[in-house]
From TrEMBL:
SUPFAM superfamilies, per database record: S-adenosyl-L-methionine-dependent methyltransferases (SSF53335)
Domain called Methyltransferase small: residue spans: 98-185
BP-aspect Gene Ontology terms: methylation
Protein name: Release factor glutamine methyltransferase
NCBIfam families documented for this protein: hemK_fam, RF_mod_PrmC
UniProt KW keywords: Methyltransferase, S-adenosyl-L-methionine, Transferase
Family: Belongs to the protein N5-glutamine methyltransferase family. PrmC subfamily.
Positions with a binding annotation for substrate: 178-181
Binding site for S-adenosyl-L-methionine: 113-117, 136, 163, 178
UniProt GO molecular function: nucleic acid binding; peptide chain release factor N(5)-glutamine methyltransferase activity
Function of the molecule: Methylates the class 1 translation termination release factors RF1/PrfA and RF2/PrfB on the glutamine residue of the universally conserved GGQ motif.
Occurrences of domain Release factor glutamine methyltransferase N-terminal (ranges): 6-68
Length: 273
């Protein structure tokens, strides 16, 4: 079996780009190798791994889980089925957070529901003066995030907590979060590889709810953990901007606003005390 033959067979089952990337991961070859030396033989163990990945990808399993990593903001993060796969729309949350941190000396930052750590680690690396604490209910997620922080050289602290439960008495200049916000039973949860991702990180699990249960808790409890003038910023669904602003207003936040992502879709809401 050559590189060309393996790739040709895989393309009958999965997307062309996915087939190429999986073959590169399985064999260690580069895209240039595939183009310049397609006749190169694929050793049996590498082909067995590739063939297994192709079948799993054809069954809908996300490519990032197959290869164990995904890129975000130019950095490679390790991922597993214990954490959500990084998505580019989350970059707007980080850009807004960096804007709020500008000019602050040694700001304290809290990332609620850190998952693989993409938000907390990005902030720690791009705002080195910040003291960042990453929180998640899942100890498996914290393990993934801690490993990513070590690999990428980011200095931050971690805590296993159900939102603010273990943070009594602590206050922060900025709180960020990408919480579960898909309504329980939403048909999207059964498509696009989402069944393979951790459901507790996608949906609030509230039967008959609107996906805002976690956001409601975060907004209600955040004022007790923010410094004077401190900001809260959180990601949400495309149709949850107005409801998020109402929650912020009711909790006493000023300048409650919603910000779009690069696709001009409402993505992040926030306000300050």
């Amino acid at each position: 079996m050559t590189l060309f033959e393996a790739l040709t067979a895989a393309r009958q089952k999965i997307d062309r780009l996915d087939a190429r990337l999986l073959l590169q991961y399985a064999t260690g070859c580069s895209h240039t190798d595939l183009l310049a030396r397609p006749e190169t033989p694929v050793i049996a163990p590498a082909y067995a791994q590739f063939a297994e990945w192709v079948e799993r990808r054809a069954a809908g399993e996300p490519l990032a889980y197959l290869v164990g990593e995904a890129e975000f903001r130019g950095r490679v993060f390790q991922v597993s089925p214990a954490v959500l796969i990084p998505r580019p729309e989350t970059e707007v949350l980080i850009d807004l957070a960096l804007e709020k941190l500008r000019g602050l000396t040694a700001p304290k930052v809290l990332d609620l529901g850190t998952g693989s750590g993409i938000v907390a680690i990005s902030l720690a690396l791009e705002c080195p003066a910040a003291e960042v604490l990453a929180v998640d209910l899942s100890k498996e997620a914290i393990s993934v995030a801690r490993n990513n922080a070590g690999r990428l050289g980011a200095k931050l602290a971690f805590c296993a907590s159900d939102w603010f439960a273990e943070l009594a008495g602590q206050r922060f200049d900025l709180i960020v979060s990408n919480p579960p916000y898909v309504a329980e039973g939403d048909p999207h949860l059964s498509r696009d590889g989402l069944p393979f991702e951790p459901q507790m990180a996608l949906s609030d699990g509230e039967a008959g709810g609107n996906g805002l249960a976690c956001i409601r808790r975060i907004v209600a409890d955040a004022p007790a953990h923010l410094t004077a003038g401190g900001w809260l910023l959180f990601e949400h669904g495309y149709d949850q901007g107005a409801a998020s602003r109402n929650l912020l207003h009711d909790a006493g936040f000023k300048a409650a606003s919603t910000f779009p992502d690069l696709a001009e879709i409402d993505r992040v809401s926030g306000g300050h005390l």
